[in-house]
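Continued from yesterday's entry.
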Amino acid sequence: MLEQIEAWEDLSRCLLILADVADDTAAKVDYLRRVSEIYIDKMSSPEQGFVTNGRALRLDAANPEIMADLEQIADVLDAWGDLDDLLVGIAKEAKLEDETKKLLWLKIAEVRHARMADKAPAAIEAYRKVIAIEPGNLHALNALEALYQEAGNWQDLQEIFKQKIEVVVDEGEKLQIWFRLAMLQNEMLDAPDEAITCYREVLNLSPGNAEALGYLEKLYERQQRWTDLADNLQAQLDMAGDPSGTVALKLRLAALREEKMKENESAIEIVRKDGRIVPA
């Protein structure tokens, strides 16, 4: 009857009383959502709609429809800070299951990153809470990778790469992460030995990988790791499909053994075995 006479304030008050006395959580949530709709659609009061939907979310924190309604109101009112406060307050409640907490912290991180200026550090904090609950959450790991990259936080970025390597199943994707970690170690962290370890991991996954062998060649030479460089050049020779392209490699290997490793006989043998270098 109150709806028929459009007594919206009285109707909302009655529904709130019903929400307070209802024993069933689902019924409470339903009453509160109806009140919120009245505030927004009939009374032009999105602020009250936000508060009422907030009460509903506290009762059913994993409800995606309530979350969507709150985001829509926050967008209209530019009340992202209020939404952040609401979600953080709910996420910190001890009684919530880990899965629900994870979903809340993901939403908090997304709101901070996408909707709130200068909140990148706070978004990182929220994504790290997701990782604390589910270490292999790729959504959070990918977001942290982007945020650390943007901030130039190379130390934390390398840890994210290491975590992703443990989580990713696809071998091709895993190889690319190893390459990116190696480049980070070499170029940003000035840690060539760690970069070498990464490229060796690539070779464990993809034996004879020409790109990894090429990077290792440069790193071994830079670090004056002559034995490793000799092994690397030999591996490149073994992998070479076109014999005509091996002369330069053999000359480099021979020079390395003679000049740096003082293995003259080995150097001579390399040259002697190839008739293109020394005609028979």
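--- second protein ---
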Amino acid sequence: MGSGPAAFLSSVLQRAGVPARPRMNRAARRLALLSVVLGTLIFVSGAPARTVEGVVANPSKSIEAGAALVDCTKTWDGPVSGGTWNTAANWNPDGVPGAGDAACLPTGFSVTAPFTGTTLSAASIQNEGTLQVTGGTLSTSSFENAGLLQLTASNSNVSVGRLQSTGTVEVGAGTLSLTNGTPGQESTATVFNQSGGIVTGAATLTITSQEPTSSWTGGTQSGVGRTVVAGTVTVLKATTGSPTFILTQRALTIAGGGVLRVSGVGTVTNPVFHLNQGA
């Protein structure tokens, strides 16, 4: 067998099952070689190749855009800001998430949840944008928050089995219930700010913020659960008036390495302190 580009072309085409017929002109043979080589490269890359109408395609390309959000059954595709959770057309596929759905909010979106007088639920929620609950009740077993979760109205209620937040949680009003008290299913939050409202439930909530620190400037924490300060939390009151922060029954643990700073003119009322416990 000869050497050079022509011999290499013939060898590759023969192994690929492409006949070296005189009727196939040079351009056609080069196109055939290109198809074989591209198919080989895509296969070798580790992604299973498939052919659709003669074109070699890589099916993994279709999931790259949403790689950070997994197992979503309802994904937000409504307005960038000002859209409401309970509008069916704001979701893909269309329809407000139900109790069996995994609802996903991509980064860059700001969603309002005005559930006045209603209760909506999802099996799980993944948030990379901003979710502002302005009324009613939102219930889920699992909430993964890499963005911003806000409770802003007195009738805002969010019930979560397990909260895992690497973003920011802000409780300004309403009630955040953390209900899963099972060992090994503790809730965690990096930055957890409370200026009002109630944090309650049987779950343990561990706060790990460093800089910026979490701040508690008002509100109540209650229930049979525990709040663990494993990072730095500042309790302060900027103005005179009612107590800064109230603990009722709920235990407060300052973990090894944790810091609770108390400053301002307010008071911390009815606390149950557990110092230097936990990891």
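Residues 32-67 have pLDDT under 50 and may be disordered. Residues 76 and 91 are 5 Å apart (CA to CA). Will compare against the first tomorrow.
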